[in-house]
Amino acid sequence: MKKIYSTALCLFSVISFAQQQIISFENSDGFYTGDIHGQGTWISTPTGDVPPNVLNQLICIDNATDGVNSLKIVKENTYGTQSIPIIGAFDNLPIVLSHNSFTVSFDINMSQLNGSIFSFQGLSSADEKYVVRVDFDHTGTVKVLKMSSGMPVMEPTVATWSPNMWYRLTVAGTSTEVKYFLNGILIFTGSAAETVGINQLRFVHDNADGTAYIDHLKVYNAAMLSTANVATYKNGVSVYPNPASDFIKINSSGKIKSIELYDSTGKKVQAIVENNKVEVRNLPAGLYLINIKTENGNFSEKFIKK
Questions:
Q1: SS3 227
Q2: Measured CA distances, 189 to 108, 125, 177, 192 (Å)
Q3: How far apart are alpha carbons 116 and 94 in whole angstroms?
Q4: What is the pTM of this model?
């Protein structure tokens, strides 16, 4: 079985870098539909063979959260299942991110369980040292890379994922820790696996089965924790704060028709709703689902009552 050679291209040299990099893979961002390889600072997985890079990782118009384009990560039929997630697209960052001062966030939608492990990785590509890695495991578990007795292990978090749903992952590194948020909910707190700079971001899978869409990528060379507890999606709805103790506020670009709350068993619970604000102070602590119907569509989001 042919394996992929995982060495990445060298970091692009530039004179300066703004405080943030925001990419939604739109034409206005300088992207076009088709092979991601060679677009901006992006490459597809090197093969160490011919062709030198895989061919089918695409900018497409199939699904998106911001605009009409997104990055589509798909199985490469030429190659078999890989031992680690490596098939996909790599962003060679214009500047090295410090392991203790960065934020990366993006939207991801995966097609199926019991297929590929879909993975986000931030690393030093020259020596293949991972600073952060998040795997959306084929079982539906979300795992985070940590060091245990000097050995790398993938640690399960409290989060799970389901097919054909958009999730927003945010990873923020500070001088003391790395925090991981999914849809605005803190799912894991740890430390950088390696204390090296991040010069490459990878959006990959292990080439089993299934497809993932990536959109609305934001990269900051600072820890932007203040924005991590807001979940925003393409139907123009945001819910915050999350977790919440007294109120949940809802912003919507369209008129809100109804708001309903459900507990973790699926039972509808009563809550006072006034002026797009939901009172939750009297609810028992735990996990809840808020369902919002607007003139633009329906929106569902999990939140934690503290």
A1: helix
A2: 21, 24, 7, 10
A3: 29
A4: 0.73
Q: How many Å separate Cα 148 from the centre of its chain? A: 24
CA torsion 208-209-214-220 (nearest 10°) is -20
Angle, CA 251 vertex, CA 222 and CA 107 arms, to 5°: 50
Paired tokens of 192: 């950088």
Chain segment 244-282, per-residue pLDDT in tens: 888 888 877 678 888 888 887 778 898 888 878 899 999
In one letter, which amino acid is 283?
Answer: L
Mean pLDDT computed over 268-297: 84
Q: Give 240-275 as a DSSP string.
A: E-SSBSSEEEEEESS-EEEEEEEETTS-EE--EEET
CA atoms within 13 A of residue 246's CA, in its CB half-sphere? 0
Phi and psi for 77 in degrees, rounded to 5?
-65, -20
Beta-carbon contacts of residue 155 (< 8 Å; ≥ 6 apart) = 143, 144, 145, 146, 148, 188, 190
